Amino acid sequence: MSNQQPNKNLIARSFGQAAMHYDDVAVLQRQTGDELLDRLLLVTLQPKNILDLGVGTGRNLSLLAKRYPKAQLMAVDIATEMVKQARINYRQDEGLKRWLPISAKPHYLVGDAENLPMADNSVDLVFANLALQWCDPRTSFAEIQRVLRPDGLLMFTSLGPDTLHELRQAWASVDNYPHVNMFYDMHDVGEAMMEAGLAEPVLDTDRYTLTYETSMALMKDLKVLGASNVNSERRRGLTGKQALKTVAESYEQFRNDGLLPATYEVVYGHAWGGQAKQQNIEGEVRISIDQIQGRKA
Ligand SMILES: C[S@@+](CC[C@H](N)C(=O)[O-])C[C@H]1O[C@@H](n2cnc3c(N)ncnc32)[C@H](O)[C@@H]1O
């Protein structure tokens, strides 16, 4: 596994600044969140304790509360402002959507997926939508395994290396610095899950294409989302007008039907806490670690 060290302070700052307007542009995040919730319907699980890891503005928190009204929810995010926003949004949902259970309010915690602020064997469901791609897979999966009960379930989405390949290619015409975040492939993710002791990991990928009028509109959306470049080898300092013009020109090679595509490779995964019996999710394709390794070109 390559050593891509995301800068934690930068991630927290970047998402923190994004908290207010994140929901305006989180189109993909809503789609993968819905898909993850749909997949969760296929498991008969009555979790008592649910952790929404990398909760962001908390959109899935209300939906999880509705699905599991008796559960105690925990909302964790590395960005303080995201946690605040999640609390505000949940309160608004309580007011607007009368269906939300009022008995057990979520617990809100600022915390790192690589050092979770909770006890061993204390969680029945870890739900992590598009958050783990900002973490070291070995450390974060080991932490998730630690807090999950043996028959607890992890359901997550993450991003694969093909994500934003058009933008990466366009930047390559400017210089050799990484301008787009690097993401781990499914093989690395599966290996990290196995190493962490998570049981029966299952992974698959799906591609989504968002379209934009201009490459500047895409880059603006990424900024609003807080998904800025956090590579430690990224180029520091302001990006010049000429560089942005070159990126825009290079991105034009991808224009199709009048629009510019932005590809997202979404990795869907689940696994059990370890030991004990595991149940299959209906219709799932089980991928053994050998098969994951076999897929690597
Ligand atoms: C793309 S957002 C997804 C938010 C939310 N899950 C959703 O579905 O809208 C990623 C979130 O993960 C959080 N995050 C990134 N690294 C994290 C870490 N190491 N520990 C906890 N949260 C993290 C970010 O602050 C951000 O709120």
What report would you give on this structure?
Helix 3 runs parallel beside helix 4. The relative contact order is 0.17. It is built from 11 helices and 7 strands. Strands 3-2-1-4-5-7-6 form a 7-stranded mixed sheet, sandwiched between helices. The protein is of the alpha/beta class and 297 residues long. The longest helix has 17 residues, at 80-96. Helices cover 38% and strands 21% of the residues. Mean pLDDT is 87; it is low at 285-297. The structure holds S-adenosylmethionine. S-adenosylmethionine (SAM) is lined by residues 11, 15, 26, 29, 33, 54-56, 59-60, 76-79, 82, 112-114, 129-131, 134-135.
Task: Give the tags.
297 residues, alpha/beta, Rossmann fold, 7-stranded mixed beta sheet, 11 helices, 7 strands, disordered C terminus, binds S-adenosylmethionine
The chain-level structural class is alpha/beta
SSE arrangement, N to C:
HHHEHEHEEHEHHEHHEH
Distance between the termini: 15 Å
Q: Name the helicity range.
A: 25-40%
Query: How much strand content do the residues show?
Result: 15-25%
CATH class of the domain at 8-160 and 184-208 and 265-290: Alpha Beta
- Which stretches are poorly predicted, pLDDT < 50 over at least 5 residues? 285-297
